[in-house]
């Protein structure tokens, strides 16, 4: 197992920010990298707010909050991303992820390259870099500081010590790691596709309203109705995942991405992160 002291989280959006908080809270020196400085500022203030909430609830002490913040560095310079392990949570585009991994490997030989992708084949990402044995899927759920599950996705080439290191890391972050095969959508996103797509079909076919579908599913026991969940996830990310899973499975009719969701993406109504999705947020 590799000794991990410094973790670099790439992407400071919905997922990257939560994962950086987890990393710092688990005691690791944490570098948060994003190409967008405004996202880094937003992530820093979001993490501070979350830690303060934990202090107010007496879940951590004010000293622990301070120590946690001291372990965090925010940067938009790739040259500062010297780490033992990387967790990337940037946009859901294969070329963006492989390009980033190649650059990180060049400055960090031997680094473990974990990807938080929801749907891109880990094997394809691994094959694009010079050290495929160091590439692994580490798929957190939203919101990362709260959700207990982490899917750990291995390929035929993943080094067993990389798997052990990532499973240990998930445990140190308070998560339950489940080993998954590198299949389209892994496990959760494969099952969940129908939750989103069937809900949008009902609305597209004028059979129910957004509010009705959400209310019924929540009353049935789901924590969030499908439309509220898509707003939380981010419409662009969810739509990309739908397309990638659909294409990887040979474009089955039942998994055809939704026109309604495409319209939302085209309109820039991405959900909570833009203030408007299926619902409006202030
Ligand atoms: N949103 C979810 O619910 C969810 C859940 C699990 C996994 N994921 C996965 O996590 C990843 C990130 O999703 P998100 O919802 O946090 O996205 P997001 O849109 O909230 O944030 C993405 C961030 O990546 C940054 N970025 C883009 N290109 C970059 C690059 N080349 N280098 C560094 N930073 C870059 C952007 O500036 C942005 O801040 C995706 O792969 C997604 O599939 C998302």
What does this 3D model show about the protein?
- This protein folds into two domains: 6-180, NAD(P)-binding Rossmann-like Domain (Rossmann fold); 189-274, N-(1-d-carboxylethyl)-l-norvaline Dehydrogenase, domain 2, CATH 1.10.1040.
- The longest helix has 20 residues, at 37-56.
- The termini are far apart.
- Strand 1 (6-10), helix 1 (14-25) and strand 2 form a beta-alpha-beta unit.
- The protein is α/β, with parallel strands linked by helices and 282 residues long.
- The chain is globular and about 55 Å long.
- 46% of the residues lie in helices and 13% in strands.
- The mean pLDDT is 97.
- It has helices at residues 14-25, 37-56, 62-70, 94-107, 122-127, 160-172, 188-204, 210-219, 226-233, 235-248, 259-266; strands spanning 6-10, 29-33, 72-75, 85-88, 112-115, 135-140, 149-153, 176-180.
- Nicotinamide-adenine-dinucleotide binds at residues 10-16, 33-36, 39, 89-92, 96, 100, 116-118, 139-142, 233-234, 237, 241, 273.
- Keywords: Oxidoreductase.
- Residues 185-281 form the 3-hydroxyacyl-CoA dehydrogenase C-terminal domain.
- Residues 7-182 form the 3-hydroxyacyl-CoA dehydrogenase NAD binding domain.
- This is 3-hydroxybutyryl-CoA dehydrogenase.
């Amino acid at each position: 197992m590799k000794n991990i002291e410094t973790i670099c989280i790439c992407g400071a959006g919905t997922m990257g920010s939560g994962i950086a908080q987890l990393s710092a809270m688990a005691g690791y020196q944490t570098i948060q990298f994003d190409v967008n400085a405004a996202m880094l500022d937003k992530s820093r203030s979001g993490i501070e707010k979350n830690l303060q909430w934990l202090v107010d609830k007496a879940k951590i002490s004010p000293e622990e909050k301070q120590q946690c913040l001291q372990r965090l560095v925010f940067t938009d310079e790739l040259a500062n991303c010297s780490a033992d392990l990387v967790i990337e949570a940037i946009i859901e585009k294969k070329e963006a992820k492989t390009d980033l991994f190649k650059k990180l490997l060049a400055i960090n030989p031997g680094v473990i390259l974990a990807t938080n992708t929801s749907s891109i084949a880990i094997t394809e990402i691994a094959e694009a870099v010079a050290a495929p044995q160091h590439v692994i899927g580490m798929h957190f759920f939203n919101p990362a500081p709260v959700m207990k599950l982490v899917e750990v996705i291995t390929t035929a080439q993943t080094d067993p010590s990389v798997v052990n290191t990532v499973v240990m890391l998930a445990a140190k972050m308070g998560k339950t790691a489940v080993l998954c095969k590198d299949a389209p959508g892994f496990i959760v996103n494969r099952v969940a596709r129908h939750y989103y797509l069937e809900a949008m079909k009902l609305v597209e076919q004028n059979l129910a309203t957004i509010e009705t579908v959400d209310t019924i599913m929540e009353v049935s026991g789901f924590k969030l109705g499908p439309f509220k969940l898509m707003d939380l996830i981010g419409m662009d990310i969810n739509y990309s995942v739908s397309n990638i899973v659909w294409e990887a499975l040979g474009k089955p009719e039942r998994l055809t991405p939704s026109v309604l969701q495409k319209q939302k993406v085209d309109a820039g109504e991405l959900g909570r992160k833009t203030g408007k999705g299926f619902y409006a947020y202030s």
